[in-house]
Amino acid sequence: MKVFKFGGASLRDAENIRNVAGILQNYRNESLVVVVSAMGKTTNALEEVVAAHARQNGKAADLYREVKERHYAIMRELFDENDEIFSSVNDTFVEGEWVLDEKPSENYDYMYDQIVCMGELVSSRIVAAYMNKAGLPTTWLDARDVVATDNTYREGWVVWDKTKASALKIVPPMLARTGFVLTQGFIGSTSENFTTTLGREGSDYSAAIFSHCLDAESMTIWKDVPGVLNADPRIFDNTIKLDRLSYREAIEMTYYGAQVIHPKTIKPLQNKNIPLFVKSFIDPEANGTEISSDTDDLYPPIVVVEKNQALLHISTLDYSFVAEQHIARLFKIASDLRIFVNMMQNTAVSFTLCVPDVPDRIEKFVQLVSDEFKVKAENGLELITIRHFMPETVENLKKGKIVLLEQSIQNTMHMVVKNVPPIERKAVEIAGSKA
Ligand code: ADP
Ligand code: ASP
Ligand code: MG
Known about the structure:
Blueprint: E1 2-6, H1 14-25, E2 32-36, H2 42-55, H3 60-78, H4 85-101, H5 108-116, H6 118-133, E3 138-140, H7 160-177, E4 180-184, E5 187-189, E6 195-197, H8 203-213, E7 218-223, E8 244-246, H9 247-255, H10 266-271, E9 276-280, E10 289-292, E11 302-316, H11 324-336, E12 343-346, E13 350-356, H12 359-369, E14 373-387, H13 391-398, E15 401-409, E16 412-419
Parallel strand pairs: 1-2, 1-7, 2-4, 3-4, 7-9, 8-10
Antiparallel strand pairs: 5-6, 9-10, 11-13, 11-14, 12-13, 14-16, 15-16
Helix pairs in contact: 2-3, 2-5, 3-4, 4-6, 7-8
The structure holds adenosine-5'-diphosphate, aspartic acid (ASP) and magnesium ion.
């Protein structure tokens, strides 16, 4: 069997859903588990519902109604008005209403997961119904019956043994009955049957979980780009598609923020040597990118820009050296607060960390270490990672920026930069790119 994943962009309206069904027609004789995300920007809209409910500003119900209305408008284009999909989607949305009818939970992250999961639950209902209507026999599967997590809401950690046992018990009989099984990305369930989510953009990871547990022959994620490019096409011109990529290269890229694939996706596939294809849903016949075991390919420079970074300059209050026990304590606190350290550098009396700029976590960190350390935070920065760098690539990337921290090891270079003044980055060329 194979696993396919379709993200929000591929399901953003009725026309795109028809396109997805068209792609699946070409695989009608295969056993396929299809993992879908919420449609378009639904998750962002549901995040606003959660925030409004938490603030009790009276806007949550209206915002939720808008989300519902967008789905009903798409359904009216795809189905007859008395199709049973309308009541099944309505029943699903009602579960969100129950949460909104209650007082907001003190545990924001818990409440977030119970509401935000609606995006995937309804999109999967709609796509499964449309596939059946299009003559592709499909069983709808609740991913929460398979993907078991701990109770870290908004960032559930997968309980692998349990997930694997459920997957092997539940999915193969469904595939035997209907060639297609359609399920949700992004969501899982705790041992007490509360819904968890796996982190934003986590549907790619869900597909990898299913692929790993079911020993898939391959996994394919369908995107609005021709494959994995050597830089984000929204930021750079003249990007080139990478035909093949090793797992290692893909892990390095996604870890440092290449948004095309969720960073947790690669490892479960690599462990079972399952190839990952990244293909275009706009041009489904084209080859895309194959990510598999190490290749001898020579790579062009690969650039990853991670925005929204902060540098934390840390020094001891008593001006003593920053020693191992200090670093151990700082990392323990960072880890407890789920502050991910992207880069670090020390001198005799100071220690600098590059971390995602999440203000409440950073404030908490500063508070917790204030008995021993002074922390100066520098915000609004970008972390640029360049693999297989060439001098001219680096020079081009530095134009119009102040480099605050720079490190290179083997074929990887990292720079933490600040834009002064803001520059038009579309003009930047990556050396090695085709004109
Ligand atoms: P999905 O619809 O599956 O959620 P995303 O929008 O999350 O898809 O990911 C696809 C987007 O990732 C592309 O539209 C592209 O703008 C962006 N992207 C960033 N870096 C890269 C890269 N190196 N290669 C290809 N796409 C990239
Ligand atoms: N819908 C979720 C999000 O937007 C998960 C995903 O799309 O991968 O973050
Ligand atoms: Mg996405």
